[in-house]
Amino acid sequence: MAQKKVAGPEIERLIQLLAKLPGLGPRSARRAALHLIKKKDQLLVPLAEAMGIAVEKIGICSHCGTVDTSDPCAICSDPRRDPKVLVVVEDVADLWALERAGAINACYHVLGGTLSPLDGIGPDDLNLAALITRCEAEELEEVILAINATVEGQTTAHYVMDQLAHLNVNVTRLAHGVPVGGELDYLDEGTLAQALRARTRF
């Protein structure tokens, strides 16, 4: 039996678009759309305006690959950043997470994903050539591979290391293991094994 449409085409389109957002299925999208419509003046109109401005002004930084309203972006333009340390991340969300942590004041390079032969994603599909060019042109002391500990992430990290092997630069990666505040009983075996292998002096 075909599902009946309960609203006009404009509302249905809003629901369909919201359902494409990460973490929102059809039911959540309907609730979100209804909430936006109910709060039209407080939410829907300002959201539409903000999205219109975003479409016009937000772009990709030609230097590092992040998103911003300027090119080069605010991070690349910041003279207080350490130009000798480059943090390589998969996605802009990872860059934002590291910035929220505030643990390092370095420059970044966004790959735009990871190598995944099964999905047809090769080196040419990522921002890898620009990374190699940057590493060759800039006087870097360290390249930090802040790439997720997935199979694809580790494959990408090894590829980057191979590509940088001819350069006089220290290539490091994030430590993997027991998270701060974590309890051993709740960790998976892979995390525990990595934590034991990467143990350090107390």
Question: Layout of SSEs?
Answer:
Layout: H1 9-18, H2 26-38, H3 40-57, E1 59-60, E2 67-68, H4 74-77, E3 82-89, H5 92-101, E4 106-110, H6 128-137, E5 142-146, H7 151-163, E6 170-173, H8 189-197
Parallel strand pairs: 3-4, 3-5, 5-6
Antiparallel strand pairs: 1-2
The CATH C-level name of the domain at 82-173 is Alpha Beta
- Strand segment count: 6
Which whole number gives the mean pLDDT? Answer: 90
- Which sequence of strands runs across the widest sheet? 4-3-5-6
Radius of gyration: 22 Å
Q: Let me know the largest β-sheet.
A: 4 strands, parallel
Low-confidence stretches are none
Fill in the CATH topology of the domain at 82-173: Dna Topoisomerase Vi A Subunit, Chain: A, domain 2
Compute the number of helices.
8
Distance between the termini: 65 Å
SSE series: HHHEEHEHEHEHEH
Which second-level CATH architecture of the domain at 82-173 applies?
3-Layer(aba) Sandwich
Model description:
The mean pLDDT is 90. The N and C termini lie far apart (65 Å). It contains eight helices and six strands. It is of the alpha/beta class and 202 residues long. Helix 7 links the parallel strand 5 (142-146) and strand 6. Among the domains are: 9-46, no CATH class; 82-173, Dna Topoisomerase Vi A Subunit, Chain: A, domain 2 (3-Layer(aba) Sandwich). The strands form two sheets. The chain has a four-stranded parallel sheet with strand order 4-3-5-6. A two-stranded antiparallel sheet has the order 1-2.
